Amino acid sequence: MDDDATASTEGWRPRVTDVGVLRVPATRVDDTHEDAIAVVTSADPLTPAFRENVVLSAVPTQGSITADSLAAIDETRRAQVWTHIVAVSPWAQGNRGRRMIFLYEIDRVVVAVAKYTFTSGDQRIDLTCSADLTTFTTLLPIFDEIAAFSELSNTAERELTNQSGDQLPVLDAAATARFGEPLESLDFLRGSQVAPSADYVLPAGSLDQLWSTKDRGLVSTATRSSEVGTALREAGLTSRFGGSTTKAREVIAPLQTSTFRLASVLQSAGETQQWSCFAAPDGLALVRSQSTTVHATSPESLSIVGLPAAIARLIAWLPLDPYWAAIDEADRDRVFDDDLLNAKLCGERVPSPKRLGPVLEECWSADWVSVQIGMHDSTDGLPLIQANGKYFHRDATGGGSLLRPVPSDTVFLGILDLVGRHRSRGAS
How far apart are CA 336 and CA 151, in angstroms? Predict the structure, then answer.
């Protein structure tokens, strides 16, 4: 390590392993885990729900970083618990490789993971750093430093063959050209990640009826026998006389006591999708989602979960999937007339403006979706546009809107920051 790096790691300690030196903050303690080369955990976790940890492991390489990255993605998707991959990006600090950010949910706890993957010799080296979702933004800079300061490599040197079979990884030609290095295609992830199932899927208007009859033990025959009334009774949310059950009171409790309300609206040509979260002081949240078109309103989905699980459901609902955010100078700070953007969002055929950057040019022919994520009764939020699986931040400026392509991990961290700001205000 150079002098600057040595100075910046004061208060850190080295952990010598078979694949190099793992450098971690001195406050971290050693642990063990099956199949791991090294494990360190926090002696004083930031939350009692989950003890943040760093796991170093190695498996045989698939022959290249592109193949190893795809193998790591595949392993994550095949996990026995719900997972959602948020971002994959090149990693060039120290060991060159990939950084993948993903979520998983186990035993009602949502964990956020930054996984750094490197190819060295005949091995794929994984540095997997995990934290409770609520503390991830605090710990991610530390995880990045661990990956940057550690000196990981396999000393075995031998000719590598394609371990994954005869078929080589499919590359993203456009991203490869922009980054100047081979990058695997991530298109297969777009829209293919499964969202967690809802607790209840009910006809439109069900939550409104639950709320309006919450204090009544008996409702009219017409109300009980309606489509909504029948569905509520079959779901165990109302009694035979239409009164609220214990389950129903659990569903509407966050509505009555919520101190934190987060909402998102997706608007495209002919369709509006709405997602909302009402979180009570005890941490339980009601999550509701529904879509409306010019022809019909979809059933509404309802779930009672902890707030971190609600945020994970927002990520999956959007959905926020990985993409290569290769941003060309021509894509930065581009101001568009609002009438032109609104026409594009309404599905009108708008000619491509001159001198678009490559990212905007690639997305111009796709359907555009307005994405609003914000707090109830507040102007604080994230104004976004989604096109061709990529996200753009939309800032109002004099005479129009400034569009900036943003990586998926930036959107993810922006959502967590928004939630963190308003949770702290509610607590105070």
Answer: 46
Dist. CA 392–CA 179, nearest whole Å: 19
Bond into 182 cis (ω within 30): no
What is the DSSP pairing of strand 271-279 with strand 284-293? antiparallel
Q: What is the mean pLDDT of the chain?
A: 90
Residues forming beta bridges with residue 115, ordered by sequence position: 100, 128
Burial of 329 (0-12, 13-18, 19+ CB in 10 A): exposed
d(CA 183, CA 89): 9
pLDDT exceeds 50 at position 158: no
Lowest mean pLDDT among 4-13, 58-67, 235-244: 4-13
What does the pLDDT read at residue 425?
A: 59
Q: Residue 405 to residues 268, 344, 357: CA-CA distances in angstroms? A: 19, 17, 10
Q: Give the DSSP per-residue string, 42-110.
A: ESS-SBTTB--EEEEEEEE--SSHHHHHHHHHHHHHTSSSEEEEEEEEEE-SSS-EEEEEEEEEETTEE
Q: Which amino acid is at 398?
A: G
**Distance between first and last Cα of the chain:** 44
**Closest to 304 in 3D by CA, of 288, 281, 282:** 288
Angle at 165 between CA 160 and CA 166, to 5 degrees: 95
DSSP letters for 136-151: HHHHHHHHHHHHHH-E
Do residues 169 and 70 touch, judged by C-beta distance below 8 A? yes
Output b/e per residue, 60-93; b: 16+ Cβ within 10 A.
ebbbbbbbbbbbbbeebbeeeebbbbbbbbbbee
For the segment 257-313, what is each residue's pLDDT rounded down to a tens digit?
A: 999 999 999 999 989 999 999 999 999 999 999 999 988 899 999 999 999 999 999
Q: What is the pLDDT of residue 427?
A: 41
**Burial level of 357, CB count in 10 A (0-12/13-18/19+)?**
middle
